[in-house]
UniProtKB/TrEMBL annotation:
This is AAA+ ATPase domain-containing protein. Residues 42-187 form the AAA+ ATPase domain. InterPro entries: AAA+_ATPase (IPR003593), ATPase_AAA_core (IPR003959), ClpA/B (IPR001270), ClpA_ClpB (IPR050130), P-loop_NTPase (IPR027417). GO terms for cellular component: cytoplasm. It comes from Acidithiobacillus caldus. It comes from the Bacteria. GO terms for molecular function: ATP binding; ATP hydrolysis activity.
């Protein structure tokens, strides 16, 4: 049997969804094992349920990387764009002679571009018109989409079809078995763009989907991990390229401040980039010439007096790290010794960093990948 990589092994990071990812991995191994007869159907079809910003779209990208070698091999389409009658033309192409028929359908042509080897991602499927569901039913039944503009059939037999929805996101679905879950989805009502209440997920449609998987609302600690990851892999790198300050971490207090803002947003972790841009990028721009110039020092963003400030940890030393622990921490000689060793180790890492790492746009601490912001705070 083929050796299928786990979606956890790629560059796409998924946090706080272990149960859902386990089910996705198992479904993928089953679908690509060669033990099932999938001829005339997509290799795998899944409906991913959950609130916005919990990792459903990232799962599709992780699947593309694991199965097709590139996270960009995703034919993505938002069903919300086809909410009205006739909206299916955008997905499957308008008939010949209609405006836009020379280009074909956005969805069908994207699948064709990847030669039928990709993840097909249909976002917000519950908002699609009935014609969109009919087109997807053909794909689930026959293993192809038909482009109405060119009269051609686009095979999806080697594709994974992923549909996402936030239907029933306000309900706890964890106690429902598969049959109960599908029944609940089939009976769920959605208000469409014409202010009409409909039940988009017909039983016959639900019966053709191989896997229905629920995603949990992310916990604050999961969001903190995402904030830390995005900061270290993007914002900190870009700041280093522009300012040559190689060692810029987030203090636990600053991380908590940013996490609180993301947690309070209805957009979920999709709001992380905007919060980081507003709180850190704007702060760097505002500081301008006041930015520190000594690249051999370790700096930390800390939240003070209602804003983020750059703190030189080498200058403040033990006092700063003790502050991060809180007043209720009992200081011991062993604790201070460990903090001292951490400061010394961090200083050596900074001193060994070279401008070449900045030029390559990949500033890395000596010994591996960028650390999590709280790595140097003793727990």
């Amino acid at each position: 049997m083929p050796n299928i990589k786990s979606i956890r092994d790629g560059s796409v990071h998924l946090y706080g969804q272990n149960a859902a990812i386990d089910r996705v991995d198992r479904a993928v191994r089953r679908a690509f094992s060669g033990l099932l007869d999938t001829k005339g159907k997509p290799r795998l079809s899944m409906l991913l349920l959950g609130p916005s910003g919990v990792g459903k779209t990232e799962t599709a990208k992780a699947l593309a990387e694991a199965l097709y070698g590139n996270r960009d091999k995703v034919a993505r389409f938002n069903a919300n764009e086809c909410a009205t009658e006739g909206g299916q033309f955008k997905a499957f192409g308008p008939p010949r002679g209609y405006l836009g028929s020379d280009k074909g359908g956005q969805l069908t042509q994207d699948v064709k571009k990847f030669h039928g080897h990709c993840v097909i991602l249909i976002d917000e499927i519950e908002k699609g018109s009935q014609e969109i569901f009919d087109g997807l039913m053909t794909g689930l039944d026959e293993g192809y989409f038909e482009d109405a503009s060119f009269g051609e059939r686009i095979s999806i037999e080697n594709c994974v079809l992923v549909m996402t929805s936030n239907i029933l996101a306000d309900r706890d679905l964890s106690e429902l078995d598969d049959t109960e879950l599908r029944t609940a989805i089939s009976g769920a009502r959605v208000t469409n763009t014409r202010n009409q209440s409909t039940t988009p997920f017909r039983p016959e449609f639900m019966g053709r989907i191989q896997e229905v998987i629920c995603y949990d609302q992310l916990k604050p600690e999961d969001i903190a991990s995402i904030v830390a990851h995005k900061y270290q892999r993007s914002i900190a790198v870009n700041i280093a390229v522009q300012t040559k300050l190689l060692m810029l971490d987030l203090s636990p207090i600053a991380l908590g401040y940013i996490t609180d803002q993301v947690t309070g947003s209805r957009f979920g972790v999709r709001h992380v980039d905007q919060v980081l841009s507003r709180e850190i990028v704007d702060r760097v721009i505002d500081m301008g010439d006041a930015l520190p110039t000594d690249r051999k020092c370790w700096y930390v963003w800390d939240y003070r007096d209602g804003k983020l400030e750059l703190i030189n940890v080498h200058k403040q030393g033990i006092a700063f790290l003790r502050e991060q622990r809180g007043e209720d921490h009992q200081t011991t000689n062993d604790y201070l010794l460990r903090l001292s060793k951490q400061l010394i180790a961090r200083a050596r890492e900074v001193q060994n960093a070279t401008p070449r790492s900045v030029a390559a746009k990949t500033p890395q601490p000596v010994g591996g990948k960028p650390a999590e912001p709280s790595r140097y705070i003793v727990r």
